[in-house]
Design brief:
- The protein is α/β, with parallel strands linked by helices.
- The chain is built from nine helices and twelve strands.
- Strands 2-1-3-4-5 form a five-stranded parallel β-sheet, sandwiched between helices. Strands 6-7-8-9 form a four-stranded antiparallel β-sheet, with no helix packed on it.
- A hairpin with a 2-residue loop joins strand 8 and strand 9.
- The longest helix has 15 residues.
Length: about 230
Amino acid sequence: MRVLLVEDDEPVAESLRRGLKRYGFEVEWVSTGAAALAHPGPYDVVLLDLGLPDTDGLDVCKALRGRGDVPIIVISARSDETDRVVGLELGADDYVSKPFGVREVIARIRAVMRRARPRTPEEAGGGTDRYGARLTVDRKAARVHVDGEEIALAPKEYDLLSFLTEEPGALMSREQIMEAVWDANWFGPTKTLDVHVAALRRKLAGVVTVEAVRGVGFRLEIVNGAPEGNGTTP
């Protein structure tokens, strides 16, 4: 996924670039509004600071929205409600106040991209994300169902499943998972990750597999097909 980052604060920009690249994003960084408007693209989402040196970020937001429907996430030290409202009214899809963590920004990017992605008729019928024939994850309600029955997950088990199902089949490093599910400043043992992975394997056996890649991390795969003894899809 290609990100256009418009941010004049170099330390903030570098931190975001490093964090986003760790998660597989391609980042193009510009430090002025003029450079943002002159950027040829293409890009999938814009991270736009409001406090730019040459122009107000709100004007840049308005100009970008006038060109097309690429998702725009405003990132700003301005936490005033008026700026939030104006930004959203001018076409921003979301608004993140500084200080923020890379984990939050990535979550916001994925959320706006899900909203921007054309939905199938099946998806349009409900507020959940479906994986294969059996598993649904309702991220608004933080609930998981298998074959229509809710599965009881501990909060961190749910967070782990929610993160891994964002990109089924993708290999996630232990560091990526710990930062996203626990905290960027987690200093405890990562053994807790193995415990939670084991719990998901047990509770979602036959629905998902969580493969351990030695020395790297984990990969979640969706198991397709109906449950054993049932030839139909619920």
